[in-house]
Amino acid sequence: MNALNTERIRRDFPILARTMRGGKRLVYLDNAATTQKPECVIEAVCDYYRNHNANVHRGFHQLSEEATEILESARARVADFIGAGSPQEVVFTRGATESINLAASAYGAAALRPGDQILLTVMEHHSNLLPWQQLARQTGAELCFIPGREDGALDMDAFQQMLSPKVKILAMTHMSNVLGTINPVRQCIAAAHSAGARVLIDAAQSLPHFKVDVADLDCDFLAFSGHKMLGPMGIGVLYAKRELLDRMRPYQTGGSMIHRVALRDAVWADVPYKFEAGTPNVAGAAGLKAAIDYLEAAGMDRIFQHEQELVRYALQRLDALSGIQIVGRAAHRGAVIAWHMKNVHPHDMAQFADQEGIAIRAGHHCAQPLVVRYGFAALSRASFYLYNDRHEVDALADVVEKTARFFHGL
Q: Which of 243, 275, 296 lies at the terminal end of a domain, its last residue?
């Protein structure tokens, strides 16, 4: 397998040519929060507004036809990228957060009864925790949590013991945005199905970095965001099996999602349109399609291999420093590293990095229960992508060491 040409890739991203804080080279290591955009994605969004802007589906003029084609070709591209059975299983949303809320509201509210159980993991992002919290309150269902081991891997023995006919929904992250842990979702899905549960996978942190095939996984739902995979903000996807979409009631109502409306009744449109009320984000869909094209041209396997080499090197560099505690040591992991420095607040760590032009993140990373479980209020986090290189890992390690010297007098 040929290695990624990171130097060439970086030229595709205009923002990476910027300098920060008095001429420092931008070192962008906040990819778990959002990724930068290649020129082709920016141009796809601009081209839509320059040349094709119109509302979709109901127009009889050329611009409307072009806009509809852009939206539906993007839907087909997404379906192909994730291995969906048809484009009708792809619902466009504003992002993974809305996708999970849609599934919880449109499927979960009708599927759950008092005493039923919703099974989550302890490492969920708030976007895959809070919707289920609210649903449990509304339905009388019980939230249960698969514990994690100290190294950040799931306790699979505990998971197997927790499965019972009471479990109706398993909702879990594919990859932790804090620990970097890549969960064995195929195994979990099969076990949950054997117990009669439906499964939602939060793929916001996995789909951008390695191949994810919904048919191979056999998940019932899968959610992800465009902006974490080189695409625009404000566009995301809920994949769901057609049989479930057909049974689910709309999440929102209004324009574009109806077949017929009378004053006191309405007939909903077919899937996926009954879940896409209002004017869709056609420009975002165009940008998402361009992002998928870019990722596949680079090669998902090559992207994953590149990131694996980066994270191994980063762990090696950070482990050589004193006073640093890496949080998350699972063997199967993605390109995310979270750490705590003794007697140094992560916000100070992030500010020191920023002064060197290095963008990292500090806080609870929208996974507060997980961070608290490890005994911290906040952590520093670096996350890598296809345009990062070993020189940037060295820059990160150097600023971490510099911060330690300042606070510890080393």
A: 296
